[in-house]
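INFO  loader      accepted 1 record
INFO  loader      residues=147
INFO  predictor   begin
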Amino acid sequence: MHYIDRPLADSLDVIYELIDKIANNYKANDGILWAISFKEDPKLLGTIGFWRITKEHYRAEIGYILDPEQWGKGIMNEAMKAVLDYGFTQMNLHSVEAVVNPDNDASISVLERNNFKREAYYRENYYYQGKFLDSGVYSLIIGEWGK
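INFO  predictor   done
INFO  writer      dumping tokens
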């Protein structure tokens, strides 16, 4: 959660609200989230999915998070490839964007390995916990997707 600019869940009620929000987004076809785990062990390692789906523009934002103990093992890159394949072939997306903290080198590396290009750098466009933060916007257009 180091680069996710929202507070940690501090109660089961907050977690249940998040689960309800994810389920409602899925039911409304406004978002889809997958759990990341090893085939042989169902322990949750992270999540990845599409949200802010803009159907009229065939575009969605991708978001992901991974347990720090799993960083550097290629897990997120593998998950990213599978989710992009689903987005482009099943959801008929034309483009996918990701908004990242510019200091999150690992996340940017995953995006760049999957042919995302930086479209924008917004200075102090986000306010969180008394500070203005920068944002980087990356995108991938179907024609640049490397499968």
